[in-house]
Amino acid sequence: MTDPSQAPPPAEPFEALLAPVLDRAYALAYHLSRSRDDAEDLVQEAALQAFRAFHQFRPGTNFRAWYLHILTNCFFAQYRKRKREPRTLNIEDAEPLYLYSRTRELGMHEKTPDPASAVLGKLGEDQVHAAIQALPEEYRVVCALYFVEELAYQEIAGVLRCPVGTVRSRLHRGRKLLQKELWAAAREHGIVTAKAAPERVE
After folding, report:
1. What does CATH list as the number for 91-188?
2. d(Cα 68, Cα 156) in Å, to the nearest integer?
3. What are the phi and psi torsion angles at 179 (to 5°)?
4. Where are the domains of the chain?
């Protein structure tokens, strides 16, 4: 007789929980792996591992956070060891209010009360995603969970199995670097220019 504890979990409840989170999970996987093909493989591998471990999931708890924990573990175990960081960003050069400082230097505060938001509003979704993907892995993972998955600090801590204080610290540093990347994207796409002249308000 087969041991019930060794029997595979029923597919229907698992699929019902998994289906609603797949699109967001793919977005996270894409930000982590920086490759659409790798993202698909990562989501599939995480789904397989989650199905095998579904008996460990506690009904009534956050399935998405549980699945994303498995997905990030798959990334750490399989993908990051064969990926090279494209470049190193110097966090010391990133001021806490980097966008505010840059827009102020161009005199944009005399044109609009919130120039940083105005600049960000002109960036496309692909450009914002590219900026997140350019971050070093330590900050990219946290920023993707926060900005893409829209998880709270406590939920991110649960996904990464780390203290909330660690999440806050990494997100703080990641935000500083992300502002630099977004400003560079705005410059690259002509949204702002170094020679922009301030328009005086009479």
Report:
1. 1.10.10.10
2. 9
3. -60, -40
4. 8-82, 91-188
The tokens for 36 are: 């659409």
Cα separation, 41 vs 44, in Å, equals 5
**pLDDT value of position 116:** 63
Tokens matching residue 103? 């827009």
Q: 3-state class of 10 per DSSP? A: coil
Copy the structure tokens of residue 159: 């996904």
Enter the pTM of the model: 0.67
Angle at 55 between CA 51 and CA 58, to 5 degrees: 110
pLDDT computed for residue 122 by the predictor: 77
Q: pLDDT tens digits for 44-91?
A: 999 999 999 999 999 889 999 999 999 999 998 876 666 555 545 554
Rg (CA), the chain: 21
Count of H-run helices and E-run strands, the chain? 10, 0
- Residue ranges, the chain, pLDDT below 70: 1-12, 79-119, 194-202
| CATH number assigned to the domain with residue range 8-82, chosen from the 4 options 1.10.3720.10, 2.115.10.20, 1.10.1740.10, 1.10.10.350 | 1.10.1740.10
How far does the chain reach from its first CA to its final CA, in angstroms? 88
